[in-house]
């Protein structure tokens, strides 16, 4: 019996060694080339994180049909640059904070403007310079709803912060739904499928508070009122916090810095199609690659890649990439993006439009709006240049400022004349800024094919610079773990408790 047991043990050891050797042989060679489509904050941060995971020998190409930065952009008015796209960063956005530090950029504190909420006839709420007066106003109009909203958002942020610990320990997620569930459990996945209106009514917030304060926050941040999903609504409310900041020189400087730090090759061109190809190797075996066809100023071209990451919206309005020969077919997600028009005006605001008869000086400088159909704009706010300027660089007329007006459609001349007493410069930027949010929300997949990933899937949960950076790191980790068969780092449950035990 003992001899038989010994023989069995030896055979088992040999079998395990053989299996281990076979497993090692099955480990794939490192990828030679990775393509990233899109050079916004998502694409450039993906290249940055991919370089960290895959090392210095992999070639990373970034395709971009426009400018580096994507929806992070600036406009020039009166000799100064102003943020035209994504403009504010939350103090708890750790990836953005790390980028700025590592790239040697400087954070820029944003001015605190006094906010008024206008309903088309009057201001339903106006901030004061005095904190105590604001507290009294809030209590008088909305009871304890402001305090409760702060606590409600803080609870969501506490759960949201878990993603940084998971990513520090190299855990990744194969779907946006599983990523959200890992952060906030059923609370986050439920919020995706109800409106922010429903979520806050269930939490006990008053209808008046939602219609005034919450609607105004949604309109300035996402342009879509309180029918957006509860998660993106919570992200929007987090943007009402204090301590918001930006990057000196413009937030797009982060994208340029990440592109340089990643040592990726920039290809100026439009990707037109992707298809899988089988190619022979020198050893007589075959390898599966992706052929990317693209158009440049010099004409059509193509290249082959091991891994492809789409960091641009796959929608009919933003691009028309064809996925050829895939079975099952890869869908291009045709749900529309919301058009937000940003109009930059160097001029003098018209107080009489807001019910302040001449001569009059508005007590607020940033004007948000409620969901009133007759209003043709969402918000008006003053801007400061992305680089501090001296007094000599400011406007000679002290009451002439640069204003940003958000609206769903381009402003007509008569509408500009209603809002401004006078103006001399107008610059218009149209953005397909973020998805049109609906509930219940069907989140696009992250994995489109064997080694094709969709970074912008996360936008359908919430669109923000930090959300794109989180998705970028998740896909860098996910693609690495799937390439080398590290399944233990993907979609693990109970990570909160697991990491507590590991620490």
Automatic annotation (TrEMBL):
GO MF: prenylcysteine oxidase activity
Domain of life (superkingdom): Eukaryota
Family matches, as InterPro entries: FAD/NAD-bd_sf, Prenylcys_lyase, Prenylcysteine_Oxase1
Any single GO CC term annotated in Swiss-Prot or TrEMBL for this entry: lysosome
Pfam assignment, any one: Prenylcys_lyase
Catalysed reaction, written as an equation: [(2E,6E,10E)-geranylgeranyl]-L-cysteine + O2 + H2O = (2E,6E,10E)-geranylgeranial + L-cysteine + H2O2; S-(2E,6E)-farnesyl-L-cysteine + O2 + H2O = (2E,6E)-farnesal + L-cysteine + H2O2; an S-polyprenyl-L-cysteine + O2 + H2O = a polyprenal + L-cysteine + H2O2
Keywords: FAD, Flavoprotein, Glycoprotein, Lysosome, Oxidoreductase, Signal
Entry's EC annotation: 1.8.3.5
Signal peptide positions on this chain: 1-23
Prenylcysteine lyase domain: residues covered: 125-492
Essential cofactor(s): FAD
Subcellular location: Lysosome
GO BP: prenylated protein catabolic process; prenylcysteine catabolic process
Job of this protein: Prenylcysteine oxidase that cleaves the thioether bond of prenyl-L-cysteines, such as farnesylcysteine and geranylgeranylcysteine. Only active against free prenylcysteines and not prenylcysteine residues within prenylated proteins or peptides. Involved in the final step in the degradation of prenylated proteins, by degrading prenylcysteines after the protein has been degraded.
The family this protein is said to belong to: Belongs to the prenylcysteine oxidase family.
Protein name: Prenylcysteine oxidase 1
Source organism: Eleutherodactylus coqui
Classification lineage: Eukaryota, Metazoa, Chordata, Craniata, Vertebrata
């Amino acid at each position: 019996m003992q001899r038989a047991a010994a023989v069995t043990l030896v055979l088992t050891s040999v079998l395990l060694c053989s299996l281990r050797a076979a497993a090692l042989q099955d480990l794939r060679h490192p990828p030679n080339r990775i393509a990233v489509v899109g050079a916004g904050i998502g694409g450039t941060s993906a290249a940055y994180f991919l370089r960290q995971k895959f090392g210095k020998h992999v070639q990373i190409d970034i395709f971009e049909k426009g400018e580096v930065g994507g929806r992070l952009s600036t406009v020039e008015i009166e000799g100064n640059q102003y943020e035209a796209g994504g403009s504010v960063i939350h103090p708890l956005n750790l990836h953005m904070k790390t980028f700025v530090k590592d790239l040697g950029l400087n954070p820029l504190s944003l001015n605190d403007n006094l906010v008024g909420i206008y309903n088309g006839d009057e201001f339903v709420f106006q901030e004061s310079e005095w904190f105590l007066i604001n507290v009294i106003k809030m209590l008088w109009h909305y009871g304890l709803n402001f305090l409760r909203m702060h606590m409600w958002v803080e609870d969501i942020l506490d759960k949201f912060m878990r993603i940084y610990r998971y990513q520090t320990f190299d855990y990744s997620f194969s779907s946006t739904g599983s990523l959200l569930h890992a952060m906030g459990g059923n609370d986050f996945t439920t919020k995706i499928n109800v409106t922010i209106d429903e979520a806050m009514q269930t939490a006990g917030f008053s209808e008046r508070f939602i219609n005034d304060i919450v609607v105004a926050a949604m309109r300035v941040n996402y342009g879509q009122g309180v029918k957006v999903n509860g998660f993106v609504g919570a992200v929007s409310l987090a943007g009402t916090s204090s301590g918001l900041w930006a990057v000196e020189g413009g937030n797009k400087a982060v994208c340029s810095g990440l592109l340089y730090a990643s040592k990726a090759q920039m290809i100026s061109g439009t990707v037109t199609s992707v298809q899988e190809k089988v190619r022979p190797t020198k050893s007589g075996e075959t390898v599966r690659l992706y052929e990317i066809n693209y158009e440049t100023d010099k004409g059509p071209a193509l290249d082959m890649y091991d891994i492809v990451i789409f960091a641009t919206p796959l929608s009919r309005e933003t691009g028309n990439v064809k996925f050829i020969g895939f079975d099952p077919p890869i869908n291009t997600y045709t749900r529309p993006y919301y058009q937000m028009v940003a109009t930059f005006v160097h001029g003098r605001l018209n107080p009489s439009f807001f019910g302040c008869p001449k001569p009059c000086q508005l007590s607020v400088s940033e004007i948000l709006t409620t969901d009133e159909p007759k209003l043709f704009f969402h918000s008006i706010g003053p801007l400061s240049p992305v680089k501090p300027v001296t007094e000599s660089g400011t406007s000679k007329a002290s009451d002439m400022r640069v204003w940003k007006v958000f609206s769903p459609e381009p402003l007509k001349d008569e509408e500009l004349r209603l809002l401004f007493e006078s103006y001399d410069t107008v610059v218009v930027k149209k953005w397909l800024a973020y998805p049109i949010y609906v509930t219940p929300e069907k989140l696009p997949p992250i994995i489109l094919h064997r080694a094709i990933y969709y970074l912008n899937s996360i936008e359908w949960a919430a669109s923000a610079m930090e959300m794109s950076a989180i998705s970028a790191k998740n896909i860098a980790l996910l693609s690495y773990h799937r390439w080398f068969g590290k399944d233990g780092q993907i979609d693990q449950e109970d990570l909160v408790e697991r990491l507590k035990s590991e620490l």
